[in-house]
Every structure is written in structure tokens, then in C-alpha cells.
Amino acid sequence: MDVQPYVLIILGMWAVSYLPRLVPALFISKLKLSAYFKRFLDLIPYTAMTALVFPGIFYSVPGHMEVTYFGAAAAVLSAILRLPLAVTVVIAVGVVLGIMYFQGM
């Protein structure tokens, strides 16, 4: 088995994934950004995480979507109250498990 094509593929994938991160890091420090734009950039990781996690909430209890609505509502309410993230997760999971327990699921 010839290893060279695999090494070239791995190096190519490294370059394609690393360069888009490196170029902005090198040049963005020289730019004067407004406070609004800095805030926008700071919120991108949270937005991406929410976009990845939120749809999965509604499929966490197959066949019983109504239970997930209560869990999501509890999580949103906890977040609005600015509770710590771990507490928000525990409350949401507790609500879902409590409803499932009392409904005999």
C-alpha cells in the first residue's frame, strides 16, 4: 500500500482547514473594529452552538415531543433568569425526567 497519496490528502485537509483560521487571526488585530462589531464576533460561537444543539432537543424523547417542549421552556426560563449553564441543564433535564416519571414512560 502506497502511503504518499494519503499523506498528501491529510496535508491538503490540514491546509484547507487551518488557513481560513490563520489569515483572519493575522490581519484582524490590525483593524480597528467598532464595539458593536466586536460584540457580534463574540456572539458567533454561542449562536453556532445553539444552532447545533437546539434541533436535537426536540428529538431527545422519541414519540413524546410534548415532553421536550417543557424541557426547552424550563431551559429558556433558566437562561432568562441568568442561572449558570450547569444549573440550566440540570433543571431542563430534571423537568423532562420528572414529566416522564409521572407519566409512566
Structural commentary:
This protein is 78% helix and 0% strand. With 105 residues, the protein is mostly helical. The chain folds into 2 domains: 1-31; 33-105, no CATH class. The radius of gyration is 22 Å and the shape is flat. The N and C termini lie far apart (53 Å). The model has no long low-confidence stretch (mean pLDDT 87). The chain crosses the membrane at residues 6-28, 40-59, 79-102. Pfam families: AzlD (PF05437). Keywords: Membrane, Transmembrane, Transmembrane helix.
List the helices and strands and how they pair.
Blueprint: H1 4-28, H2 35-57, H3 65-80, H4 85-102
Helix pairs in contact: 3-4
Q: What is the average of the pLDDT values?
A: 87
Model regions low in confidence, pLDDT < 50 over at least 5 residues = none
Compressed to H and E, one letter per element, the order equals HHHH
Q: Name the quaternary structure.
A: single chain
Q: Give me the Rg, rounded.
A: 22 Å
What overall form do the CA principal axes indicate? flat
Separation of termini?
A: 53 Å
SS summary, helix count: 4
Which class of secondary structure composition applies to the elements? mainly alpha
User: How helical, in percent, are the residues?
Assistant: over 70%
Strand tally is: 0
Task: Profile the largest sheet.
Answer: none
Strand content: under 5%
Query: How many structural domains in the coordinates?
Result: 2
